[in-house]
Design brief:
The chain is of the alpha/beta class and 287 residues long. The strands form two sheets. The chain has a seven-stranded mixed β-sheet, sandwiched between helices. The chain has a three-stranded mixed β-sheet with strand order 6-8-9. It contains twelve helices and ten strands. A hairpin with a 3-residue loop joins strand 1 (25-29) and strand 2. Helix content is 50%, strand content 15%. It has helices at 2-8, 18-22, 58-73, 104-122, 139-145, 173-183, 185-194, 200-206, 218-230, 234-253, 256-267, 270-285, and strands at residues 25-29, 33-38, 43-48, 79-84, 127-132, 136-137, 149-153, 159-161, 198-199, 211-213. The N and C termini lie far apart (47 Å). It is globular. The chain binds octanoyl-coenzyme A (CO8). Residues 52-53, 55, 88-89, 92-97, 135, 137-139, 163-164, 167, 169-172, 263, 266-267, 283-284, 287 line the site of octanoyl-coenzyme A.
């Protein structure tokens, strides 16, 4: 993909076939994601629309991965902005119901889809910008950190972070690696142990997000920022990205099955199921 894309586009210019030019906009809608691809800019906007909180269920992840893969394969698509259609929430992270009371087989299938989502984003040749227009705990935070740049709505009520320990579960090594690569070792160590959720100002301070803007400017700022990133020759940017991320990606790809087995063994333990039950009860009681 890297070489295909590099041979097609360089110095910020994209080769677009006449047939594609004729059809300037190519929109597709599926129940859980909405993708708008503007052929004239080479930038797609993917809106997550899985009410109420964009939790990452197996169905959602399957659609999401197919959507990203389609864009990745389309050489005229150079940039992707990911945002949420839901008010106040970017993504609530993994769907807890996928981890609670499920069979080991189903848990394994689910975890493979979570891995796939991360691999697709973290290893993408496209420039991916997270337009974080709401809270983004746990898996939502992972999704954001797998992007190249993060713009968050400046709202003290919105939080982001890897809060897994608060649920009595543990962020896997590749969640940890992604956070370490983003904010550094010490901050990650403390954040993981405490299950910290940062408000937008704190997230900017530790470098978990790159920019805060008023909520109604998140998407326009993402679009402007994308122009800057796309001005860099694709092949040079892609090789630089791969140089930084490949060792982290290889760690998972060479251990995928073992990681799935580890997840299934862990999540189906009685004690862990009990912790998830208590967390679900707490979520209900908060209302
Ligand atoms: N999964 C499933 N359902 C959820 C989730 C979720 N992650 N989050 C919220 N919901 C449900 C709520 O229970 C509620 O359901 P109902 O209406 O039936 O009572 C509904 O969605 C709406 O939720 P809220 O009323 O809480 O919505 P708010 O807008 O007030 O708040 C928040 C939105 C901030 C996102 C809030 O819902 C929240 O904090 N949710 C929990 C987020 C969370 O802790 N996610 C962690 C998931 S675990 C993960 O992603 C990584 C796991 C790695 C596993 C490793 C194991 C080895």
């Amino acid at each position: 993909l890297l070489s295909q894309r590099a041979s097609c586009s360089s110095h910020g210019r994209v080769c677009v076939s006449p047939a594609v030019v004729a059809q300037r906009r190519n929109n597709s809608t599926s129940p859980k994601i909405k993708v708008e691809f503007d052929q004239s800019t080479g930038v797609a906007v993917l809106r997550m629309q899985n009410p109420p909180v964009n939790s990452l269920s197996l169905d959602f992840l399957t659609e999401f991965c197919i959507g990203v893969e389609k864009l990745e394969m389309d050489k005229s698509c150079r940039g992707l902005i990911i945002t949420s259609s839901q008010p106040k929430v970017f993504s609530a992270g993994l769907d807890i119901m996928e981890m609670y009371g499920q069979s080991p087989e189903r848990c394994g299938e689910f975890w493979r889809a979570v891995q796939e989502m991360w691999l697709k984003l973290y290893g993408s040749d496209m420039v991916i910008i997270a337009a974080i227009n709401g809270s983004s705990p746990a898996g939502g935070c992972l999704m954001s950190m797998a992007c190249d740049y993060r713009i968050m709505a400046d709202n003290p009520r919105y939080t982001i972070g890897l809060n897994e320990t608060k649920l009595g579960i543990v962020a896997p090594f590749w969640f940890k690696d992604t956070m370490t690569n983003t904010v550094g070792h010490r901050t990650t160590e403390m954040a993981l142990e405490l299950g910290m959720l940062y408000n937008s100002t704190e997230a900017l301070k530790i470098g978990m997000v790159d920019q805060l803007v008023p909520e109604d400017q998140v998407l326009t700022t993402a679009t402007q920022t994308m122009t800057k990133w796309l001005a860099i020759p694709d092949h040079a940017r892609q090789i630089s990205k791969s140089m930084m991320r490949k060792p982290t990606i290889d760690k998972l790809t060479s251990n995928r099955e073992a990681d799935i087995q580890h997840f299934v063994n862990f999540i189906t333990k009685d004690s862990i199921q009990k912790s998830l039950h208590m967390y679900l009860e707490m979520l209900k009681k908060r209302k």
